[in-house]
Amino acid sequence: MTKASKVTETGGVSKESGPAVALGAVPAVDPRLLVREEGFKGYLDEFGRRMRSGELGPLPVVVGLLLIWTIFQTMDSAFLTPENLSNLSVDVVGTGLIAVGIVFVLLLGEIDLSVGSVSGLAGAVFAVLNIGHGVPEVPAFALAILCGTAIGALHGFFFARIGVPAFVVTLAGLLFWSGLMLEVLGSNGTINLDDEGFVAGLTSYYFTDIAAAYGLAAVAVAAFTAASLLDARRRRAAGVPFRPTTEIALRAGALAVLAFAAAWVLNQYKGLPLALVIFLAVIVALDFLLRRTAYGRKVFALGGSVEAARRAGINVARIRISVFAIAGTMAAVGGLFLASRIASANQGAGAGNLLMNAIAAAVIGGTSLFGGRGRTWSALLGMLVIQSVVSGLALMGIAAGIQYMITGGVLLAAVVIDSVSRKTQKAAGRA
Question: Phi and psi of 293, rounded to 5°?
Fold first, then answer.
């Protein structure tokens, strides 16, 4: 009688002792193990299979971003200068934080149209409390964020408990919170923030010591490597497929090249922006929440099938309310960073193309409009695409109307790719 196969340390299969199987039966082997045993050819074949089956991942947006950077650098050599890239890294933060919240809502297959208004209201609440009533900055900052959390939870309540469609609830919120923001600001319409204060420093402060940027890069690579090795050891102990050490080393090396190159560029100008550090920290923390916790699995399950999630014992209403609360919180945080960028709260906050850019960033970055697929990193990738287009066209002196048209075209392309990818995956039996 044969022995069951067991995963080896290199990710392969060995004939060690284990539960007996039926005489003459062929033990099932995970195809990912065969890929790793074949080496580079195996990975190449696997990549081709994933592309044919519509599992594109972040590839389209990465290719698009490289193409955009190449085009604009060819047309204007100032595009990839350290100054422009440093400014770009700060410009993506405000709207990017709002987009992170949108990712959570899109994972449910829903939409939140109120985030722009909520962001503007948060900035107005902070300015009135701090400048108008003398409340210290930190408490005023916290109250403004809690305001966004409460608004998001209210939207979630109407959606999850009352049954009002999310589109209608948040559309009403868009109008209501915009009006409340105007009332909060009063007849003056604009309140200037303290240029030397805490909030203003969120987007104006830089770690000028070169050790800060390089240190962050080193910490990121070390944390990624340690987490990958720990995950591989845990999966090996459980007898399930895991990444071999050589693959982890290659991934860590690629991350190191990217991280230290970014650190070098930032150090050529003012140094490491505080805003970028906070943005990356939020993305990593919420990515962990989505991918490594029971709560995150419930969010994905709900986005896949509401009825299946309900039958699995998931409290659908609670998850929905919490997701909209997260979206409201991130909208408020993003609004405060946007107010920090211009050192004021005014009647134009949250208006214009802010809402569309936040939604577009999440979708362009790879989050599906149909629910159940996406990551918080989508917000960063999508904002890099959008802000790169804005920055490149601004350097060339092209009108804002053209910027809107190009951004709209990029958004449409992202949705088309998402739709085609889903259809291909269904045809391949992988969706």
Answer: -125, 160
Q: Name the token pair of 216.
A: 């962050």
Instruction: Give backbone dihedrals phi and psi of 198, rounded to 5 degrees, phi first.
Output: -65, -50
- Compute the distance between CA of residue 114 and CA of residue 77 in angstroms, rounded to an integer: 39
Distance CA 317, CA 315 (A): 6
Give pLDDT, residue 48: 62
**Max intra-chain CA distance, the chain:** 86
CA atoms of 196 and 12, how far apart (whole Å): 58
Q: How many CB atoms lie within 10 A of CB 262?
A: 18
Q: How many CB atoms lie within 10 A of CB 185?
A: 23
Indicate the helix (H) or strand (E) that contains 13.
Answer: strand 13-14
Q: Answer yes or no: is pLDDT of 2 > 80.
A: no
pLDDT tens, residue by residue, 371-391: 888 899 989 999 999 899 888
Residues contacting residue 26 through CB under 8 Å, at least 6 positions apart: none
Band of residue 6 on the pLDDT scale cut at 50, 70, 90: very low
User: Tens digits of per-residue pLDDT, 409-418?
Assistant: 877 877 777 6
Say how far apart CA 35 and CA 147 lie, in whole Å.
50
Could you identify the residue written with the tokens 């917000």?
379
Report yes or no: 328 and 68 within 8 Å, Cβ to Cβ.
Answer: no
- Record the tokens describing residue 277, joined without a space: 């550090």
Q: Does an H or E element contain 48, and which?
A: helix 40-52
Consecutive H or E run containing 345 = strand 344-346
